[in-house]
Design a protein that fits this description.
It is built from 24 helices and no strands. By secondary structure, the protein is mainly α. Helix 5 runs antiparallel to helix 16 and helix 12 crosses helix 15. It starts with a helix and ends with a helix. About 1% of the residues have low confidence.
Length: 557
């Protein structure tokens, strides 16, 4: 083999890895977007049992073809406080099983011999998918085209990697060099480091399979490199966890401990097998003769399944261990009293459909904060008691923070690959955030009216306070209908919200009439009357902003 062929082989290897990575990303993004609703419902079921959590993790990873994406998604959920550590652990366990599907697909693609190879057949899907992408008009059809194109490109990349490995296998110097790496621990380390660099255990496993098939390395070497890839894939989750909450760090640590435990266990078993002069390569070679690609892919599956079976009963102990390693600091809580996002996290941008749902949850939480502040404002203006003013100010800071930071998150999310429905929803979400922030501003106005009454040594009459209380109850009724409509895209609830809003308009009109009557009868002063009328006007506008939030469902439901 001359220098030109060596250079060509190296370039082909890099090209193959690049195409394979792009294919994985393309498949993952389109599968996530197409199955976003099912993906959301799957994660909602993860809390029911440990086995179900494993199943959810396996199914999700098999669907989106990325254990790293699943792990980062889980860390985002833990960070948001909507998934416990134990639930997250079981999903991560399942993700390790789900990621073996890629290896099985790759192994299937390396069959061929003297006939047309399955790899060439599957690679043809790249052309079919590209054709669909070019001419399809509907969003769902384009997503299917993207999946097909990604699937085909997977095998284009695989063919290029396999071809380059074939060239290298002809060089005795290369084979002799690789033969030097027989130490299992060293091979595991190599697999972990290479996987950490390419950020994909699927790529590393696929490369190991092609190297075994072409004879560049032995089956046993490929097995230990594959084991190392399971440790290397934790890097993505660790990076995500390091910039998040304590529980998110613990989740990333669970991922690492689980994978390292499996590797240690199989290294020990391999050591005992060596005493009997056999190894994993010998065992799987006998189980699946004349099919090296199946031998390695099946080991990968067995390795992960056995590790899950052993570690799953120890989930609670594992949670206690990571809690000890990453303890709570009583002195300083980063979120106490400080504005923060409850549900969204920048790492969720890797899984756009889930990020969209979490954005909706964040807006629902924002709406609740706004209604709480409205209640506090009404309490202050009616009683002139400022005992809860600090809570009010904290909530107002939270609303202002969400108005800025959540909009920034949505702008970034809109740059990701989304379904048309999700894109429309996010466009309306920005307006909803503004509406809810305005609710907070009007609540702030009501507190200012309390300040003016206190300065003038005035207060509302009992009749006026009763009217404000009745109005507050109507706002709560409106809020309930609006949230039902918004949360479930319930058009019946939207009609109910419209009806309540009309009642509020009528009531605020009568409040103005009652005010004039009291003013004429000398039951209240002009100063009190001014604050009272301003309050009723502000409450009417609060109702309008809540209705605006509910009305957005007509755009995308």
């Amino acid at each position: 083999m001359d220098g030109v062929k060596i250079a060509t082989s190296v370039l082909s290897l890099f090209a193959g890895v690049g195409i394979f990575l792009i294919a994985c990303t393309m498949m993952s993004a389109n599968l996530e977007a197409l199955g976003s609703r099912r993906l959301k419902s799957l994660f909602a079921k993860a809390s029911k049992s440990k086995l179900l959590g494993v199943g959810v993790g396996a199914a999700t990873t098999a669907a989106i073809q990325s254990s790293s994406a699943t792990s980062v998604m889980v860390i985002g959920f833990v960070n948001a406080g909507i998934m416990t550590l134990a639930q997250a652990a079981t999903v991560i366990f399942g993700a390790n099983i789900g990621t073996t599907i890629t290896g099985q697909i790759v192994a299937l693609g390396l069959f061929g011999g003297n006939t047309v190879s399955t790899s060439a057949i599957f690679a043809a899907f790249a052309g079919i998918g590209a054709f669909v992408l070019a001419f399809a008009k509907k969003d769902a059809a384009q997503k299917i085209g993207g999946i097909m194109a990604g699937f085909g490109m997977l095998f284009v990349g695989l063919s290029m990697m396999s071809g380059s490995m074939g060239y290298f296998s002809e060089l005795e110097a290369v084979k002799n060099f690789l033969a030097m790496f027989r130490n299992p621990l060293l091979l595991v380390l190599i697999g972990a480091l290479l996987t950490a660099v390419v950020q994909s255990s699927s790529v590393m496993t696929s490369m190991a399979i092609t190297m075994v098939v072409t004879g560049l390395i032995s089956l046993n070497q490929g097995i230990y490199i594959t084991m190392g890839s399971n440790v290397g894939t934790c890097v993505t989750a660790l990076i995500a966890g390091l910039t998040s909450t304590k529980n998110a760090k613990r989740t990333a640590l669970i991922h690492l401990i689980f994978n390292v435990s499996g590797v240690v266990l199989f290294l020990i078993i391999g050591l005992f097998l060596g005493i009997g002069k056999i190894d994993y390569g010998f065992i799987f070679g006998k189980m699946f003769p004349n099919a090296p690609q199946i031998q390695l892919s099946m080991f990968h599956t067995v390795f992960n399944v056995v590790t899950v079976i052993i570690v799953l009963p120890l989930t609670n102990l594992l949670v206690k261990l990571v809690t000890l390693i990453v303890p709570e600091k009583k002195s300083k809580q980063p979120t106490d009293g400080q504005p923060h996002l409850h549900f969204v996290d920048e790492h969720m941008l890797r899984t756009p459909p889930i990020a969209v749902q979490q954005t909706k949850n964040e807006i629902i939480a924002m709406a609740e904060t706004a209604i709480v502040n409205f209640d506090l404002a009404c309490g202050i203006v009616c009683s002139l008691n400022y005992e809860k003013i600090e809570e009010f100010r904290k909530n107002e800071n939270q609303l202002n923070f969400l108005n800025k930071e959540l909009v920034k998150f949505i702008v970034r999310l809109l740059k990701e690959d989304l379904s048309e429905k999700d894109r429309v929803y996010l466009s309306t979400a920005i307006r909803s955030i503004t509406d809810l922030e305005r609710v907070g501003d009007y609540a702030e106005n009501i507190v200012e009216y309390a300040d003016r009454l206190k300065e003038a040594n005035e207060k509302f009459s009992d009749e006026a306070i009763n009217e404000i209380t009745d109005l507050k109850m109507l706002i709560h009724k409106l809020y309930g209908a609006v949230m039902n409509a918004y949360r479930d895209c319930d058009k019946k609830a939207l009609k109910e919200a419209y009806a309540v809003e009309e009642t509020i308009d009528e009531v605020t009109g009568k409040m103005a009439e009652n005010h004039i009557r009291r003013l004429s009868g000398g039951l209240c002063t002009p100063e009190v009357g001014t604050q009272y009328l301003s309050l009723s006007t502000n409450v009417e506008r609060i109702a309008d902003h809540y209705i605006n939030v509910a009305r957005t469902i007509k755009s995308y439901s």
